[in-house]
Structure formats: C-alpha cells, structure tokens
Amino acid sequence: MDTIVPLNIDGVRKALSGGIVGSAVHYHALLPSTMDEARRLALDGAPDGTVVIAEEQTKGRGRFSRVWVSPPGLNLALSVLLRPEIPQLPYINMAAALAVCDVVHELTDLSASIKWPNDVRIGGRKLSGILVETDMVGRQLNHAVVGIGMNVNLDPSQHPEIAEIATSILAESGREANRSEALRLLLGHLDRYYAEIRGGASLREPWAAKLETLGMTIQVRWGDDVIEGTGESVDEQGNLMVRKADGSSVTVVAGEVTLQV
User: What is the 3-state secondary structure (H, E, C) of the chain?
Assistant: First the structure.
C-alpha cells in the first residue's frame, strides 16, 4: 500500500455523536506520541472521551516503553482521554481489550483472545496492544489515557522484527479492511463499555472469559525473579492469581511484571 488513504474522520464523528468517547476527535498525520498529546489536552481541560489519532508516531510506546511498529496508513494508533472515578479505573483496560475483540469479530468473524494483561491476539500472534496511563494527585484521579494500537492492514511478513509474533486484520482475513470502519467500530464499542463502567458495571467476567492466560502454565517475572505456575483467576482490579506447584498462590499486579506462556 503506497498511497495513504486518510481516515474518514467526519464520518466517524457523525457516527459517534451523542456518545462520550469521540466527543472530540483530533486527527494528525504525525505526532511524537498520541499518549503525550492526549495528556496535554487533558491538562488544557479537554472533555471526557477526547480521541487523538496519528497516522505516524515518532515516539509511540507500549508497556515498559516498548516500541510499537506501525507504518503510516496501515493501522490504527490512538489514545482516548477518559475521566473515570477511581473505582472505575481497573475496568478501563478491560474495556479497551474487549472493544478490540469485538472489532475483530465483526470484521473477520474470528474470535480474538487476550493475553493478560493487555495484548489482544489471534492464534497466539499479537494484533493489538493497550496502554493505560493515569494522572493522580494524592488520592484524586485527574484523568486516564488509554492508548490502543491495532494492526489493520499491516503485513507482518514485511517486518522481520515482528514477523513471527504479530498479526493483523489483513493477515487473518486475507483482505484489506476499511480503517475508518474499524475506527468507528472500535470507538463505538469502547463508548458502550465506558457507559457500562460509569453505570457501575463490572467487566471482570467478560474480560476473564477472553483471557487465554487462565489455565495455562506461565512464567511471571519481577525484575530478575521468576515465578512459574498456573494462571488461575483474575480479581476485580485485573490482577492475576497464579497457583504455584507447591499449592501456594501469588497475586500478580499488571504494571509490575512481564509474562511468558
């Protein structure tokens, strides 16, 4: 794909009118980071649900500052500013992952799974990564920013560094997808889940039902320490319960570990 087909942002805005997510949509050809731009807008008072999209990022990042490979015009790279209450915060990551799974099903009729805590995968290959960053002052939550990178029309075989671990809508379906339609679906599903969260709903059960990590033998790393066991369950905070071979259990917090299955 040599020519970048721009996203139909006006159409997406119209489709999302009346919701919270997509209350404002900022579309950029190039940004250092959609996360940083969303944070800047938050500090300037941007409304709940503001979306920042970039065709290309020079400093795009995932968990633990990992680089996200995404050539312009092929995928979706965006951040959404949200202003939840503190008790609702654990469900933001769940909402984003479930929204991506819903998009995959609608565009390909395939079922995606979630590798705890925030990778959406098909057949063991990563299609999407999610990053949630918060701004706290004392015990007050000012805002959260959820970043979503989703491979839409990427051909992973053209990128040796990710060829064995990544996939895309194109790779799975054998045909290019309409990125504007994928964006509309993604933001629409995220808005629906966010409304549920704001209404007091828990997303733990539907999120847990998508977790491929549960029931699997896994290795959890804290720095140089390694714990091996079986992914047993997740709690309302999204933490993973790991049952070790000796019968003891460990609660693993997402922000502190890496995980291998």
Answer: CCCCCCCCHHHHHHHHCCCCCCCCEEEEEEECCHHHHHHHHHHCCCCCCCEEEEEEECCCECHHHCECCCCCCCCEEEEEEECCCHHHCHHHHHHHHHHHHHHHHHHHCCCCEEECCCEEEECCEEEEEEEEEEEEECCEEEEEEEEEEECCCCCHHHCCCCCCCECCHHHHHCCCCCHHHHHHHHHHHHHHHHHHHHCCCCCHHHHHHCECCCCCEEEEEECCEEEEEEEEEECCCCCEEEEECCCCEEEECHHHCEEEC
